[in-house]
Amino acid sequence: MRTALFALTESGVQLARRLADAVEGGGTIHLPERLHGHIPSEYDVVYFSRLADVIKTAFSRYDALICVMATGIVVRMLAPYVESKLYDPAVLVFDEAGRHGISLLSGHIGGANELTRKFCAAVGADPVITTATDVTGVFAPDAIAARLALRPVPKSAIQVLNTALLERKEIAYYIASNLPHAAFYEAQLRAEEIQARLFRGEIPPVGADEYRVIITRAEDVPSESEPRTLYLVPRRLIAGVGCRAGVSEAKILRALTEACGMIGREPSMIDLFASTTVKREEQGLLAAAATLGREIHFYPKERLAAMIERYGLMESDFVRQTIGVGNVSEAAALCAAGEAGGRMALGKTTFGKVTVALLWEK
């Protein structure tokens, strides 16, 4: 998950450091120029002159924003850019003393509620979560969607079902048996003490006064759905892959297995591979994609460079000297995700001579 941290004061910098230590990959800390030199060199730091400018860029660049400052400042900075709970990044706010952490935006689908609990535990703060379903202790369908990387459709049904939950009404869960990895979703729901019903063929008709969630393929979602039905559609998992010349298929498959294991998935759940055109003839990479039965898209260095600039991706000097750009795995995955972009499930991670990044499309 691409994470940006912001602080405005010296005491805020100290808390930002502690929070960054709890972020996988460390995240990028953003500080005003007057605080230059107040943080050790091992942290990835961006200095800014105007908070409004850097927040605007970060809102579309990162998956999560952690702000160590007054909530009012954050609300005013973000107001012009808030668009949809389906696409906005998670936004958390911490007071400088580290007493409270607030889940401010995208609590469920963006993952802000879970992140708030995680980072509050890391720094000893009290989590402040105001989402109605969380407050009442019920597991909302859109929270399930976020945890299982499913896209909720239509958006309007989210509120209908969450309201029903708050009124103590039951929600029935269905899973299409022809859905790839249906058993995985059934097991995940069972772990949350949710019993799902498998169905084959046409979507079962909705019962009287029934509220339901149906996990199925995107192409099977009807154009006009019943308002008490929320569909959860699997998001594509894109694997961006970079590798040294001559790496074997076995080593690439091993790297993919380890990478997927880090996010609780199997390599068979990868939908698409992405890499640089420099690797178009790399036999080990081509063989790995063929073994898993997936397409692989190759992108020229100009496209990769555009993604590096757009998302502020970290670059490797060695990779830049070798192929002309300093980031292959993350940049290629973002190219494959298209204009809508995606949420990074696993930032670029090196496994020997193979580098892998995993991205859920939005």
From TrEMBL:
It holds the Pfam family CbiG_C. InterPro entries: CbiG_hydrolase (IPR052553), CbiG_N (IPR021744), CobE/GbiG_C (IPR002750), CobE/GbiG_C_sf (IPR036518), GbiG_N_sf (IPR038029). Residues 237-358 form the CobE/GbiG C-terminal domain. Residues 54-134 form the Cobalamin synthesis G N-terminal domain. GO terms for molecular function: hydrolase activity. Gene3D superfamilies: 3.40.50.11220, CobE/GbiG C-terminal domain (3.30.420.180). It comes from the Bacteria. This is Cobalt-precorrin 5A hydrolase. It comes from Selenomonas dianae. The lineage of its organism: Bacteria, Bacillati, Bacillota, Negativicutes, Selenomonadales.
